[in-house]
Amino acid sequence: MIEILSPTEITRARETGALVADILQALKGRAAVGTNLLDINRWAGEMIIEAGATSCYIDYEPSFGRGPFGHYICTAVNDAVLHGLPHDYTLADGDLLTLDLAVIKGGVAADSAISFLVGDAKPLESITMIDATERALYAGIAVAGPGARIGDISHAIGSVLSEAGYPINTQFGGHGIGSTMHQDPHVPNTGRQGRGYTLRPGLLLALEPWVMADTAELVTDPDGWTLRSATGCLTAHSEHTIAITDDGAEILTLPTKAVQ
């Protein structure tokens, strides 16, 4: 299903997007050496409930997972990159942490992910990888607009990731979003220009470049959810929800508050 949202729904999407972004920034500010992933999940739940919103993950039960997910947020550390199930793990100095959050408020969902380093250690490999996913994300956003094709976005994202030297997995990528978290169209993280669905004003897309340092192969943890690099290498993931407008694309998941 591909949804085209009304102007009123887009206004609600802006509110949801800002909420997602602000929660992620608040959690980033609280994630420190010694923080447990279960605490991050608890904090996320408290902020979501206080805002009158609902996590898209609590009842999330796709065919590829061992559902329902049953937690408020995805937390992925180091070699974990997608659908990281919060568990009893204490963050260490230099850990590369990805937080992926999707919520629904006012009947409209928004989805965003950030990767960042915990503590004082700043390994160059981690910084370089996070930077590549962020640059790829903004390259995809830059070409999104009415009349563009999904392949244009995929090509822009893939060009940045490939030039940075990262293999690209196309099993999981960006997606449409609206009244539910995951909708058509699928937005692969590499592709050919001029191909695929033509973008229209009112379409919401969650774009999410993610990479693994030396492989494109994923393995699934025994928890049935957490996806890791097959080689144990580092990973990173960046994501924004955007709205296609009459003259381009608007990023909906930008924070309105400074990190607490």
Blueprint (SSEs and pairs):
Blueprint: H1 7-30, H2 37-50, E1 54-55, E2 74-77, E3 80-82, E4 96-105, E5 108-117, H3 124-143, H4 150-163, E6 174-176, E7 183-187, E8 204-207, E9 210-212, E10 218-220, E11 227-229, E12 235-237, E13 240-245, E14 248-251
Antiparallel strand pairs: 1-4, 2-4, 3-11, 4-5, 6-7, 6-8, 8-13, 9-12, 10-11, 13-14
Helix pairs in contact: 1-2, 3-4
Helix content percent band: 25-40%
Q: Just name the CATH architecture.
A: Alpha-Beta Complex
Indicate the mean pLDDT. Answer: 97
User: What percent of residues are in strands?
Assistant: 15-25%
- What is the CA–CA distance across the termini? 38 Å
Overview of the structural elements:
The protein has helices spanning 7-30, 37-50, 124-143, 150-163, and strands spanning 54-55, 74-77, 80-82, 96-105, 108-117, 174-176, 183-187, 204-207, 210-212, 218-220, 227-229, 235-237, 240-245, 248-251. By secondary structure, the chain is α+β, with helices and mostly antiparallel strands. The protein has one domain (7-251): Creatine Amidinohydrolase, CATH 3.90.230. Helix 1 packs antiparallel against helix 2 (37-50). The termini are far apart. 47% of the residues are buried. The model has no long low-confidence stretch (mean pLDDT 97).
What keywords describe this structure?
5-stranded antiparallel β-sheet, initiator methionyl aminopeptidase activity, 260 residues, metal ion binding, alpha+beta, single chain, Creatine Amidinohydrolase, 4-stranded antiparallel β-sheet, 4 helices
